[in-house]
Fold this sequence. Notes:
- This protein is mainly α.
- It has one domain.
- It is built from 5 helices and no strands.
- Helix 3 (23-60) packs antiparallel against helix 4 (65-72).
- The radius of gyration is 22 Å and the shape is elongated.
- It starts with a helix and ends with a helix.
Amino acid sequence: xxxxxxxxxxxxxxxxxxxxxxxxxxxxxxxxxxxxxxxxxxxxxxxxxxxxxxxxxxxxxxxxxxxxxxxxxxxxxxxxxxxxxx
Length: 86
């Protein structure tokens, strides 16, 4: 019903129906989307690891937690957990 009122939704439904009609195309699309999501997840994980390592170095330098939060983009709780783990 929404697809009838909205041009973007009509197009999206059309693409979905077209992809669903061809099993091989649908499987290829799903594999591509999974690979894309996996890459995003790996990138985000690597970024988080770098932020954590950076925060650990700042903690070792006795930088105030507020400054580390600002510089690392980690939460205060995450940084306190790092500090307490040492």
